Structures are given as C-alpha cells and as structure tokens.
Amino acid sequence: MRAFGFAAAMALGCLFAAPVADALDASARTPVPERSYRSAREALRTGVREYNAGDKEGAARALEYAAGQGHALALWKLGRMYADGDGVPHDDLKAFEYFSKIADANTDDGPDAPDSGVVSSAFTALGGYFLDGIKGTYVRPNPERAYDMFNYAASYFGDPNAQYNLARLYLDGTGVEADAKQAARWFNLAAEKGHRPAQALLGDLLVNGMGGISAQRVRGLAWLALARQGAEGRKDDWIVTLYEKNWAAASADDRAEAESQMQTVGSIRRRR
C-alpha cells in the first residue's frame, strides 16, 4: 500500500503544483488571530469548544491559528466552514485552498493514519471543485482531475462519498469513458457502507439493467427499499421518487422477496 501511496503522491503533486503556486495563500487572506496559543492542539480545542458554543467567529480565529501550524483537522474544519458559509463568508476558493493544503501535506499517508478520514474527505471535496470549477477563479472545470481526486480517495482510503462520486463519473461518462459495470461496482462499495444515494442508484441500475449489466430486479428493489427507509428530508426526495417508480412497476412476488432481501443487504452494511 505504501508503494501506491508514493506513486499517487508524485502524480497528485503535479496536479496541485501549477494552480496552487499561482494562487494567493488561503492564510494570507485570513486576519491574524487576535490571541496566541501555546500549541496548535490548544487552538484546535478552543476552536471546537467555541464553535459548539455558537461563537463561530471566535472558533474561526482559533482554527486559523491551528491551521497556520499545519493542523489537518483545523484546515479541514475551516475548509468546511468556508464551503458552507458557516459562521464565515462563503468562499469556495478559500475552502479549496484549505483542502489543497491537506492534500499536499498528506498524499503519502496510509489509510490507517490518524488523520486518514480528514485527508480522504479533503480529496473528495477537491474532486467536487475540480468537477465544477469555481467561477471567477483559477480553478477551472477539469473532469480528469476530478476523477483523479475521487479515485484516490475511493481506492486508497475507501471513502464512501468518493466511491459514490466516482461511480457517478463512470455512469455519466464524465472525465472517463462511460462504464455502467464500473459504476455499479463503486456504487456497491459505497452502498454497503450505508451511503443512501449510492444504494438508490445501484438499485435503479440493477432493477432496470443497462450498459451490459444483467437485470437483478429483486436485489435492486431491496437496495432501493433500504435507501428509501433511510431517506431524510427534502434532500432525499429524489430517492423516494426513484423508489416509488420502480416499486410500482414491480410484481407483488418481487416486492415480497425484496423486502425479505433487505435484511441481507442491510446485514452487509452492519458488518462493515
């Protein structure tokens, strides 16, 4: 696994070198914290405590101190805050640069490293930015780079969000040649980890069969039913719609067997 990590680090170093070197450093556009801390760890603890207490401005100042010391979790949290406009002005470029710092500093970390979850999440976020670009900035849409980011996080770290996004690229033929079988493979890996959108799209693929995939209606319905069971709020309305469409078209026998198989596919997820 270390050999893969080193090769990936070399390749990804080339990916980030050109644009990030020409960009303003994220920390250069961030106000200097008003207070100092004994360590990045202390600043991180303070930032988390103030964030949870609702003082997001104070949290950002503390996290900026820790991020300036290269603390991966602080960099990631700030990236998420700027990406979401959570207590700070929404700024996708700043978020991109914070995530880039994590990627640049940790490309050779293994999946068992303490910060592996943060690192894989950063690569996945970067994949999203490369996929769509950031309007008015040097970050242009680049589906091939998006593929590299998603593939690295999906393959090396087993990140379910990256696996889902990689599957979408294969399904749509974006940045890579369309391949429904590869899409189903990556959807399946994410679905087994409880990723609802992956469960829904895998189920739809299996129910209908496409791109050389043989229809497996019962198993597909079981995945759709499992996704529907976990659907939450308006953001998952499309999952409910997809489930209802396929469920309505299924025979009573297929529905009954699918409900039985839900326990089987659900147990795969619980064991992982």
TrEMBL record:
Gene3D superfamilies, per the entry: Tetratricopeptide repeat domain
Keywords: Signal
Ranges that cross the membrane: none
Pfam families (UniProt xref): Sel1
Signal peptide: 1-23
SUPFAM superfamilies given in the database record: HCP-like (SSF81901)
The organism of origin for this protein: Methylobacterium jeotgali
Keyword Signal: yes
Protein's recorded name: Exopolysaccharide biosynthesis protein
InterPro entries on file: Sel1-like, Sel1_AlgK, TPR-like_helical_dom_sf
